[in-house]
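S.,

Sequence below, as promised.
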Amino acid sequence: MNFIKNNYLKILITLFLLLFAFFSVSKTFDTVGEQYTDESFKRSLVSFAIAKGLNGAISIVQGTEVALEPAGIGVILTPGQILDPANDLVERFSWVMLICSVSLGIQSLLLTIFSSLYFSIAVAVALILMAIFIWRTQTSSRQLKNILYRMAAFFFILRFFIPVMAVSSDGMYKAFLEAVYVTSTQQLEYSDRAITAISKEGTQIETENKDVPWYKSLSSDFSKTFDVERRVEQLKIEVENLTSHIIDLIVIFVLQTILFPLLFLWLCLKLMKANFSYRYFSKQ
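The prediction came back faster than expected:
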């Protein structure tokens, strides 16, 4: 009982080191990290595919022209040009999705490297040696202990910072971002279908009115005018919906796949710097 009381801190640290030595070779955190990167990669690819589909649909609508001849004066309207700002935003969104996919690919590669069998065993051995040296207070050189502790802490940081970042990022996504992602993705899919339907409708009207006799063109032009106005209103609604939801998705992916990993990388570098500058044992 006195032994436990006198060595309480050493026992606690030893248990902590042995526990993480076990986690290093058991792949417990790695499974969560791999699941996070896979799911995030799929989400980014889905969003990228939707963006490219929207880009194609908008391009078709922008190329649609409506010819009118009120009072014998020829006028050509291009109602799809109202989608110009949205199309520019969609193109930038597709680039953001590509960058986010690359970021997730880098994270997945780092996770694979630092969770490899040999690296995991090396970390486990370093942590076990660190636990052993805690109890060898008199027979071990303090300089040797400092070197061992620094290397063990360095390997420990490399081994676990990607899985811990993945778990934290996944928790943040499920707690705060998932509902916004689902809503925005559904809205983009709906807008894609709506814009495609508008483009098909405009093409169909042009085909139907292509061979209209001149004496019927006047009434046809009036009906076209009302149809153009209706399509412009529909396109304005889709532009507003697209803009807000695309910005929401950009915020989600940039925060989760770029800013959050950069924050963890900064913390990791700070910990490494502190580790190599910290003296675990002072000179005798």
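The two ends are 31 Å apart (CA to CA).

Coffee later?
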